[in-house]
Amino acid sequence: MNDISSGKNNCDSHLPSLKHDSKQTVCFNNATESQSNATGRHNSSFSYIIKLYPTGEIVLVLASRNSQGKPPLSHGKRLSTGVTSQGRVKIRRAVAARVIAAPSKPLLLTLTTQDILEDGVFNKRLASFLAYARTIAVSTFKDYVRVIDLQQRGTLHCHILLFEYIPTSSFEKLRHLWAEKYEFGGGSFDAKYLKGNSNLAVNYLSHAAAYLARDYDDVRIGRNGKPYVRTVFKGNAYSISTSLMKGALPVEYDALTLTDSRMHNLAKTLNWTNDGYAAYRHFESLSHAKEHLATFGITA
To answer: Is the CB of residue 264 less than 8 Å from the CB of residue 28?
Structure first.
């Protein structure tokens, strides 16, 4: 990301030290916003919302951000190139919140096909597989992240991140369903247990989530140096189970005007994204994030 200039505001020269801070802190006057990419915008009519996440993140977003949104796609015609940047953030938050909340024995399932199938056929069989899995391994498939990806030859494959081991009897039934009943063949059902102690679990699974949601350019090139047969597929690139999705949602929020002195002081301790519409800072826990807001007289 590119840095955000703080313009001509007189900012405090000694701001708190922030980990992994590759962006400059944006400072505000009480009357006007002074971001390099938002010249001329007056903040008298803007309101910012503070969101607190279970992962200990503080996010400050412009309340009118949705005015920049794109119209929805027509029903049944959704095309994907992969997981979006917003989707990657949701996956990271959901994974981290789950590991913080309870012990994890992470497992990564990879479901492939030997034959090139239509996207609709693959998605239908995948939905049937997950529905069956939730009936024979209820606790294991309660929390999961599913990501669909393209193989170089043009067919789809799926990664499923789980947080509990699959019982042996259930594992054999699921492997039989995918590899034999669906006739996808040997090697189409792969399971990898992710090892890591409690101190490394969040980072380990976050890396796994980043792998699941990795990004690509418009022209995707395989390891052999040859381009992919196609770069677009039908359907949603990812899904997060309902229970796991709670970790990706804010637990509390408050709306404040940008001219408020508390917001002015808080803004100087946060890292701004390159579009100038959102700021964030990641703390060790939700309680630490609340303590930080309390120092500015902000209570949720």
So the answer is: yes
Domain ranges of the chain: 1-76+253-300, 84-248
- Tell me the whole-structure pTM to 2 decimals: 0.74
CATH 3.30.70.1910 fits 84-248, yes or no: yes
- 3-state SS assignment for residue 60: strand
d(CA 2, CA 152): 32
- What is the per-residue pLDDT across 259-284, written as a single tens digit (0 to 9) for each? 667 777 887 888 877 666 778 888 88
Task: Tokens for 10, please give them.
Answer: 């007189």
Give the integer Cα–Cα distance in Å for 287 and 193: 32
From 292, 236, 220, 272, select the one nearest 60 (Cα to Cα). 272
Helix, strand, coil abundance in the chain, percent, nearest 5: 30, 20, 50
Residue type, 193: Y
| DSSP E strand boundaries for the chain | 47-52, 57-62, 79-80, 107-111, 144-150, 156-162, 189-193, 233-234, 238-240, 252-257, 271-272, 278-282
**Alpha helices by DSSP H, 152-260:** 168-176, 201-212, 242-245
Phi, psi of 197 (to 5 degrees): -80, 180
Q: What is the rounded (10 degree) CA torsion for 290, 295, 298, 300? A: 20
The HSE-up count of residue 227 (CA atoms within 13 Å, CB side) is: 7
pLDDT digits (tens, 9 = 90+) for 39-91: 333 344 456 788 889 888 888 877 665 555 555 555 555 788 888 888 888 89
Q: CB–CB of 23/4 below 8 Å?
A: yes
Q: What distance in Å separates the CA atoms of residue 34 and residue 38, rounded to the nearest whole number?
A: 7
